[in-house]
Design goal:
The protein is α+β, with helices and mostly antiparallel strands. It has 2 domains: about 45 residues; about 80 residues, no CATH class. It is built from 5 helices and 3 strands, in the order H-H-E-E-H-H-H-E. Strands 2-1-3 form a 3-stranded antiparallel β-sheet, with helices on one face. The longest helix is centred in the first third of the chain and has 20 residues. It starts with a helix and ends with a strand. The mean pLDDT is about 80.
Length: about 130
Amino acid sequence: MTTMVAQLRDWADRLDGRSGLYAHATPEVVCGVVVGLRAVADDIERTPQAVWVLEVTHKHGADITVHATERSARETLAAYCLDWWEPLFTEENWVDPETLSEDQVIQQYFEAVDGHESFDIVSAQVQP
């Protein structure tokens, strides 16, 4: 988001004071575009940004990660489950994770740990 704001401000600065260079637009139009670009950049900076926080608790403590999307948080959670899949499942209760969806991997894993581990994914707002 910071990169987009910086780009908008850069465009506004480049246009500002150069309306004479744009033969196809009046100075008023160029000024309006500059004001508009700056207003959009200001709005973006003032708008709280949503993030997704993933917390996995286990016997050693907790792993906490922050993600731009819920999808990313769930992908990270599924990767965590797959990292610990083999030690958890034996030949007697083996489930091939390749045959499961991401949601099924998460569900199977946390059912198998039987309350010894847990997870939570929550949305939060990052204030400007």
